[in-house]
Specification:
With about 450 residues, the chain is an alpha+beta fold. The protein is about 50% helix and about 15% strand. It is rod-shaped and about 175 Å long.
């Protein structure tokens, strides 16, 4: 499986342009000519056309023409350093100056024609409208053609696969399916259907696949810039970014694929270990912060509850004090009102008739604390004067009723709104001499 040496996207474009311009069908021959000319497309094309016409080559490679090889990661791309050709000598500079306008016009017209052709006949694969539908369509097509024996395909878009692999800290294996490539059927029926390969991939990777003939697969192929099929790429989290760490192109046997994937995992496991440790540390710090926040919230709630209870207690005490104060004011107002009424009602009590006046009644009144009062009233006077007389005494209760001794009954002597004028002593049926009792209603 050719995975080690491949061309950059710029070199691939020059290779295809050189093949179109010269008509040479052998790709290896085109690549050899471009490498000889240090990938200078204009010089390589002109030199090739000159040699076809029998003219000698005007290209003089530099004395130190050994290409510099730079590696990126193990089992990945190799890049060749490109040296720009510059004309040498009078003949070289003269040819360069004469051919430059024609080459410039030719390249400009060629670029315009390609741009116009892309506008008239755009590639339908460039428009991705249903990426998930493309993936599911590929899986259904693959199973109908090669059967259900294969690694578990990730049923989601490429972006979703990247996010899940990053979240789960797993290796992501990308398979780009070339439907028309000659090595594809053998790879699918032999390698991907191998039980060891299936078990290895299912237990170690998220496996995402799609056909490059579908928009989603074509979009991914443009991002990964594959040059051969079958194509596999391994992506893993590195420096907090999902990075392509290996690219495998061309057919490969099951055993070799497992070995190469295992080697790729071994070479890049440290990045996942570092990511796991970093995530564990961040998770631990997050847990500690959450516990601290929870403890703070509980302490805050406890303080708020204490403050609420204290506030309610203060409000209760304040309400109680206010009620007591209002009660005292009401009692004081009531006492002042009673004192005023006693002064006012005392003037309304008629004078006591003399002892020898006929049609009078003599009353013995016993107060609650035991003191006895004696008073005479005219029989045609209202009972309210009896009430006023008792009410205005300094030892009388504020709220009371007057009852007879025998038979025991309550005298309706207090004026009310319904009965502002109580009956007279005669109407009450009192005899000439009576013993009355004052009952305190507040006790």
């Amino acid at each position: 499986m050719a995975e080690d040496v491949q061309l950059s996207s710029n070199q691939t474009e020059k290779l295809l342009q050189f093949q179109d311009l010269t008509g040479i069908e052998e790709m290896d021959r085109c690549r050899e000519i471009l490498q000889t000319h240090n990938w200078d497309l204009e010089v390589a094309v002109q030199d090739t056309l000159n040699m076809r016409e029998g003219s000698p080559s005007i290209y003089r490679p530099p004395s130190n023409s050994m290409p510099t090889v730079v590696t990126n990661f193990p089992n990945q791309r190799f890049y060749q350093a490109v040296r720009v050709w510059r004309p040498q000598g009078i003949f070289g500079w003269g040819y360069f100056l004469l051919s430059f306008p024609f080459n410039f016009i030719y390249q400009s017209l060629l670029s315009i024609m390609r741009f116009a052709w892309s506008l008239i006949h755009p590639d339908p694969r460039r428009y991705v409208t249903d990426p998930l539908g493309d993936v599911l369509s590929f899986i259904q097509s693959y199973q109908s053609k090669y059967g259900p024996v294969h690694p578990v395909f990730y049923q989601g878009t490429y972006s979703q696969a990247l996010n899940d692999a990053k979240r789960e800290l797993k290796f992501l294996l990308i398979y780009l399916h070339g439907d028309d490539h000659q090595d594809t059927p053998y790879f699918c029926r032999t390698t991907l259907a191998n039980q060891d390969v299936i078990a290895f991939i299912n237990t170690r990777f998220l496996f995402w696949a799609c056909s490059v003939n579908l928009p989603e697969g074509y979009r991914v192929s443009q991002a990964l810039r594959e040059n051969g099929y079958p194509f596999l790429a391994v992506i893993v989290l590195r420096d907090n970014r999902m990075t392509v760490v290996a690219r495998l192109e061309g057919p490969v046997e099951p055993t070799e694929l497992i070995q190469r994937l295992q080697r790729i995992m071994n070479d890049n496991e440290t990045s996942l270990v570092a990511a796991r440790l970093d995530r564990q540390e961040r998770s631990l710090n997050q847990t500690i912060r959450e516990e601290q926040d929870q403890a703070y919230l509980e302490s805050l709630r406890a303080d708020q509850e204490k403050e609420r209870i204290k506030k309610e207690e203060d409000e209760r005490k304040e309400q109680q004090e206010r009620e007591e104060h209002e009660k005292k004011l009401a009692e004081q107002f009531k006492k002042d009102e009673i004192r005023r009424l006693k002064v006012e009602l005392a003037d309304q009590v008629p004078d006591e008739p003399p002892p020898n006046e006929p049609d009078t009644i003599r009353l013995m009144i016993k107060l609650p604390e035991g003191r006895r009062l004696e008073r005479r009233f005219r029989r045609d006077h209202s009972l309210k004067y009896l009430y006023y007389f008792v009410f205005c005494h300094d030892q009388s209760p504020d709220c009371f009723q007057i009852v007879t001794n025998f038979p025991r009954r309550v005298l309706p002597c207090e004026p009310t709104r319904d009965c502002p004028e109580p009956p007279s002593f005669r109407e009450a049926g009192l005899s000439q001499s009576e013993m009355l009792f004052v009952q305190d209603l507040d006790t």
